[in-house]
Amino acid sequence: MPFPQANGRSLEAPVGRFILRRILWMLLVLLVISLITFVLMHAVPGGPFTLEAKQLPEQTIRQLEAKYHLDAPLYVQYLSFVRDVAVPVITMGDQPAYRDHEFLINISLPGKQQAKLRWMNFGPSYRAVGRTVSDIFRDNLPVSMRLGALAFLVTVGVGFPLGIVSALRRNTWLDYAAMCLAILGVSVPVIVLAPVLQYLFGVRLKVLPVSGWGSPQHLILPAFALGIADAAVVARLTRASLLQVLNQDYIRTARAKGLSERRVILVHALKNSLIPVVTVLGPMLAYLLTGTFVVETIFGIPGMGRFFVTSISGRDYQVIMGTVLLFAVFLVVANTLVDIVYVWIDPRIRHT
Amino acid sequence: MKRTVSLSIPMLVLVLVLAACGPGGLPTTAPSPGGGATVPPQPTAAPPPPTQPPKPKAITISRGANDPHSIDPQRAIDARDATLVANLFPSLVVMDAETNAIEPGIAKSWEISEDGLVYTFHLIEKVPWVHYNASTGKVEEVKDSAGQVRYVTAHDFVYGFLRALDPSVGSQAAYILAPYIVGGEAFNAGTGPRENVGVKALDDYTFQITAPEKIGFALGIYSIINAHAVPQWAIEAYGDAWTEPENIQTYGPFTLKEWVHDSSMTFVKNPFWPGSEGIRQAGLDEIKFLFIDEAVALREFEAGNLDSATIPGSEIERVRADPTLGPQLHIIPGMCTQAWSFNTTKPPFDNAHIRRAFNYAVDRESLIRNVLRGGEIPAPFFTPPSVAFAPSASVTDQGIRYDPDKAREELALGLAELGLSSASQLPPITVEFGTAKTLSDVAQALQVMWQQVLGVQVQLQQIDNAVYWSKQEKDAGQIFRAGWCPDYNDANNYLRDVYRSDSTFNYGRWSNARFDELVDKARVETDPAVRLELYTEAERILCVEDAGTMVLYYPVTAELTKPSLKRTYSVNGTEFYWDWDLVQ
Fold it and tell me: Which residues of B touch A128 (CB under 8 A)?
């Protein structure tokens, strides 16, 4: 089998087409996901106003449902959701400030006075009165993304070196120590690790804030708590994969050719051992960037994570749809990135 | 994988402010509003401002996780919302946080007509609407387009009350207010015009409400969570976003300085609030509320970063034993009741003897000591003692208590009546409850108690909350988890609103003619002593004699407070932050 030349030029066009196709597929995937989510969440008993221990009177529930158009037939509700999210609208002049009509994207158009292109209205939250899903995306998503990005750095920054060191020093005390650490990282749940970190560094040593958000110091403990479990996964995967690659014939050939050990590892072995690691890093990145409930709750961080949980338990329909679609987008994008990285790592992989 | 851990979110339900008379109906010095009593105007003496302004008195406290639902009075939902609203938008009258005595809010005085139908409130004059200006860092008076200061007027109350009842606003407490104002129910149901609602402004500072019938506790209803003045012009200009810090206008002891959603909220003192007898000027300059989980709040408190924190019930034992934290701990009785009820339409609980047998067999003290361990209070009656006119505040000995001999005696009587020879011949019994750790703990304890005392084996069935609540309404289990938190602070809300035979909340379909008669009488009775008597008999029938429900305990909250913070401990769910201060 002839090896295709992996120069930048010849890859460019297929990658462009590949991304375009992925985007089109993503739209279809999102449509299907939104339909499934919509059906499932309405199939679950209870509604946003019937969940409190104390039942509201029938009439009040009906009024609230009418206010949010929950009294319309389900297919109408679904279609108007799709319309509100997908179809851009142009508005003239000052919009009344009713939050139900809050769009995620508002672009002022040139020329005409106060004309605005508005796109993606995910609707209101029923539980946080007066807030919309767009507000949540605008206010809470950046927080989660900042924390998630840092946690991802911890994952990669700790996981990779640990895995490489233990693979190269296989069956030495270093390997055992590193893998011991990794097992500890995987098996200590964040719900235990996070309070321990808080107690140690916040309450006892008083070197870092216990909880909260705002300064760089606030990021350290949650990013570490969030990243360390995944770092352990990455470390173990890297080690296993690297060991496998090191046993392959071409590595022996490279060594036989007299290449330095450093070059053998860095250029020939490491790159090829990345494939399984990169595969798990994609979904990990999507998870981390969209926020995690436990870490955000324990550290009092105003991120997205809580909405994945509270929206479902609170039957906050629009927030459920918004968060599910958001996560789907992140996941599809992350996997697309992974696919592109595959090509870079191993030119034999081609996307058609 | 990481999103499936559930943390217990305290279930706070509408806890509202007031009732009409003194605590538990005991004779107090509080003015009695019944029978056309007139309350003389109370001069409000504002303390002279200090000559040398010291450094700002600011505190940081935590009262549970999650963003408040809303601080818009007409859209607020739970008890924490209600407290925030009460500090920003004073109600007409207010019930003291610790004594439950009724006091003037923004109404300096009021009259009730002879027939008990017309309530006339005289507002404090020239209380300005204020707004915190972030660029100057100062609280400023709100001015209209002509440059005139906007004062809180009776028209603002008319607007607020109508907005509370307007079906298009969707106030979750509309159903509480509506029956107590002429035309209110029709307007709220969309069948009557706005103009027919019995609220009007006689002049700028005189607000009048007309009630459809004489009610013993109407004054309290007129000060519930959604019965506050709101700024019409701001709501019309900003829509739902009017409660954001850049838009909001308030008039109470505090105003909103900052709201970082899902993270924190900051109140700043409003120097323009003149203070009234019930709602005084704020002692503190600034209060920051952190919306963090209770377990986290405890660690923050231990790290010295909080002046006061609500902590998880599971930590009470450890904190109490701690030499430093122990003395700073305070257990606050709540206003809710945990009860489990019988479905009286399903055998064997259509038989009163069987119901009484199960009821007597529950050792509430042991349940609290060995299972709950959070300092809960055993419940003799359905209405908790912190609710106005609750017999449990004075005559607890007449309530239900553990009595294994009586339980076995009642079981024997019940079996004889049913023509059965032993408990094993009873139909299978299933206990239904929603999803919460505490509930399954309690259910298992009850199962053991009934097994040990009565020799009856029951099945436990835990059901997803959403399903549970809708099932309970249509088809409650033989024994099911019930319980209640108040809509407003009066025993009427516990007894008549829940257990009258035609109440929608009476899921067990318990019916007792004498009980109905008693609570109907108490509803319109204005003599406090008579009301308490009526409720005492009603409670005895409900909780002991006819065993319509099985009350277990009153939940409590646990708070830690630094000694440097001088504060009140509210019994009625609404914190009066204006009375808090730092010890210099």
Answer: 67, 69-70, 261
Those residues with Cβ within 8 angstroms of residue A143's Cβ, 6 or more apart along the chain or in another chain? A213, A291, A301, A302, A303, A304
Residue type, A204: R
- Predicted confidence (pLDDT) per residue in B260-279, tens digit: 999 999 999 999 999 999 99
From chain B, the residues in CB contact with A291 under 8 A are none
Read off the pLDDT of residues A124-173 as tens digits, 9 standing for 90 and up: 888 888 888 998 999 999 999 999 999 999 999 999 999 999 999 989 99
CB of A327 within 8 Å of any CB in chain B?
no
On whether any CB of chain A is under 8 Å from the CB of B299, the answer is yes
Chain B CB contacts of A130 under 8 Å are 70, 72, 75, 240-241, 243
pTM above 0.90, yes or no: no
Instruction: Pick the residue from chain B with its C-alpha nearest to A303.
Output: B262
The answer to whether A293 touches A140, Cβ cutoff 8 Å, is no
Residue B258 host element (H or E): strand B254-260
How many other CB atoms are there within 10 angstroms of residue B511's CB atom? 16
| Encoded tokens for B112 | 């009730």
Asked whether the beta carbons of residue A213 and residue B263 sit closer than 8 angstroms, the reply is yes
- Phi and psi for B256 in degrees, rounded to 5? -80, 125
8 Å CB contact of A210 and B243 = no
d(C-alpha B462, C-alpha B473), whole Å: 16
* Residue of A216, A202, A299, A298 whose CA lies nearest to B301: A202
Residue A325, pLDDT above cutoff 90: yes
Q: Output Rg (C-alpha) for chain B, integer angstroms.
A: 25
The yes-or-no verdict on residue B230 having pLDDT over 90 is yes
Out of A46, A49, A130, the one facing B72 most closely (by C-beta) is A130
* Per-window interface: B 56-115 vs A, CB < 8 A: 65-67, 69-70, 72, 75-77
Residue B41: asked if its preceding bond is cis (omega within 30°), the reply is no
Residues whose CB falls within 8 Å of the CB of residue A46, separated by 6 or more in sequence, listed in order = A315, B465, B466, B467, B469, B470
